Structure of CRP-like cAMP-binding protein:
Amino acid sequence: LAAVPLFAGVPDDVLARWEAASALVSHPAGRWIVAHGEDGTDVYALVSGTARAMTFGADREVILADLRAGAIFGEMSAIDGRPRSASVIAVSDVELMKIPAAVFLAAVHESPAVCDRVLALLVGRVRALDERVHEFANYSVGDRVRAELLRLSRPLPGSRGEALVEPVTHAEIAARIGTHREAVTRELRAVEKAGLLVKRSGRLVIADVPGLAESLRRA
Ligand code: CMP
């Protein structure tokens, strides 16, 4: 648990006590760890690998968030005792620390720092969702694709306004912004045609980050 940022600064003996009440579990890539609507109150800390919080519609899946080593999930049902709010799937092989709700809640109660971090985590999540709802209310599908490209990109060091887009399929972009794969393919083509997006060694590169951001603001 010492590797989980949520528990940073907690004295070793306290961590050891929480750890003794938890269990290290592993799951292969593709395995569901928690399923939407299921009962369960364990909290999971991702020790290694990546996972994804998702929800499903009749004809589509929606990616809520990617979870990386150090992230925790399952805290919502631990806090309110209600069924799981979303499904979480292992994207790669994962190792998890499975923490009983009582231990997680005791940690929140015992440590103001842990409590603050849980609040920050939940606030960050509401902000991310608010941003998406704002985009749904204001943006066309094309602009949602552009906004997602910006979110998925990191500045290319030494370049002028270029950014490398994380490897991602059109279907994944669609699942992040609540649309269909075909719409993403069409909109990406339009962004490429406008000269704002180029392919370089098989990777997507935003050629002009300020230009792409500006094209959103004008919309
Ligand atoms: P819980 O509801 O217990 O089980 C599903 C978990 O998915 C949930 O707790 C959160 O940890 C996680 N989760 C649900 N919605 C989101 C979201 N929008 N962003 C990130 N994680 C989420």
